[in-house]
Design goal:
Layout lengths: L3 H8 L3 H8 L9 H13 L11 E9 L2 H6 L1 H16 L2 E7 L13 E6 L3 H10 L3 E4 L9 E5 L1 H14 L5 E9 L6 E3 L1 H12 L8 E4 L4 H15 L6 E4 L2 H13 L9 E6 L12 E4 L2 H17 L7 E4 L2 E3 L8
Parallel strand pairs: 1-2, 1-3, 3-4, 4-5, 5-12, 6-8, 6-9, 9-10, 10-11
Antiparallel strand pairs: 6-7, 11-13
Helix pairs in contact: 1-2, 1-3, 5-11, 7-8, 9-10
Length: about 325
């Protein structure tokens, strides 16, 4: 197989010039004739670019997460920083846009887009008029046409219930937050709550009083709803709680500690996200680790496939979580 050095030798141009031409570096100041000559020689010699070195420019990164949301749930910040790091390593130029800027700020010459957060139907239509190549991370919109990378929250929720059942617990509660319809702004249940309800209903174990739902996934909300449950239920609390997110679980742990209710001896907790602080709370929190680097890598792979392999069929990829067992549940 021909190398860049071989092409440089035959064409008479430097290795650097040949490399930058073959990697579509638009900042290189050479004539169109030079570019065409180098590419013609490369094709004649059967040169094939190594996977992953092709530069990809002007990919719109829609970070539709507010500063408040990022502060409340550092999970989103983790996705943002990891995606930008990996994109830089892979020579993928991400141009970040924020919801407050408005969808009309997106460059109409964008080659593709990656989105985190909730976009309206109007915003998605606007994007699809710019480019058909789009990936959503952590959510899914228009799955018939656009790619998505999602943590498998349904499987994680079912796993947590099954784990508690294997521990011998009969009464399992749920602490979660509401979602909101992006169009109507009306509250709707999250997938984790829906999964919990369906699983328990099928086994005739669903108890509405054991399902605690708050407006958003904050430590404060987790603390307050747990205090309310303790005061209302007294000794009639569930034996364990499946918790939708780590911030809610951390707040709940604080409330139970204040009321001197032993964890996990009286009530056990299992949540999702494995943010860094979970190992330091009291007791350390058992939680699902979501592989953010793999999510980001998969999202960038999907964009690359779309642009360089001409894939038109949309993909939805689910990333499995890994349970991290700590002291808020019985030993595994």
């Amino acid at each position: 197989m021909a190398t860049i050095r071989d092409i440089a030798k035959k064409s008479g141009y430097s290795i650097t010039t040949v490399s930058r031409v073959l990697n579509n570096d638009n900042n290189l100041s050479v004539s169109d004739d030079t570019r065409e000559k180098i590419k013609a020689i490369a094709e004649e010699m059967g040169y094939k670019k190594k996977q992953g070195i092709t530069q990809l420019n002007n990919v719109a990164f829609l970070y539709w997460i507010s500063n408040e949301e990022e502060l409340e749930d550092v999970y989103f910040k983790g996705i943002r920083t990891e995606l930008e790091k990996q994109a830089e390593q892979r020579k993928i130029e991400l141009i970040r846009y924020h919801q407050k800027d408005g969808i009309e700020k997106i460059d109409k010459n964008s080659s593709a887009f990656i989105a985190i957060g909730k976009l309206t139907d109007r915003e998605i239509k606007y994007l699809e008029e710019i480019t058909p190549h789009g990936v959503f991370l952590n959510t899914s919109r228009d799955p018939q046409n656009l790619d998505s990378v999602l943590p498998d929250l349904k499987l994680m929720t079912e796993y947590m219930i099954q784990f508690f059942e294997e521990c011998g617990y009969e009464r399992i509660g749920f602490i979660g937050a509401m979602d909101y319809d992006v169009e109507t702004k009306e509250p709707i249940p999250q997938l984790r709550e829906i999964t919990f309800r369906n699983y328990q209903r099928e086994r005739n174990k669903l108890r509405e009083e054991d399902i605690l739902i708050v407006p958003s996934s904050t430590v404060k909300n987790g603390y307050q709803i747990a205090l309310q449950a303790i005061e209302k239920m007294g000794d009639d609390l569930p034996e364990a709680f499946v918790v939708a997110t780590d911030p809610l679980a951390i707040g709940a742990l604080q409330a139970f500690n204040e009321k001197q209710i032993p964890i996990p001896q009286r009530v056990a907790f299992f949540s999702i996200n494995n943010i860094s602080v979970t190992k330091y709370v009291s007791p350390p929190l058992t939680t699902f680790h979501i592989d953010i680097p793999t999510m980001c890598e998969t999202g960038l792979d999907l964009i690359t496939e779309r642009l360089f392999k001409n894939r038109t069929t949309a993909k939805t990829v689910y990333i499995q979580g890994t349970p991290i067992f700590r002291k808020s549940t019985p030993a595994k």
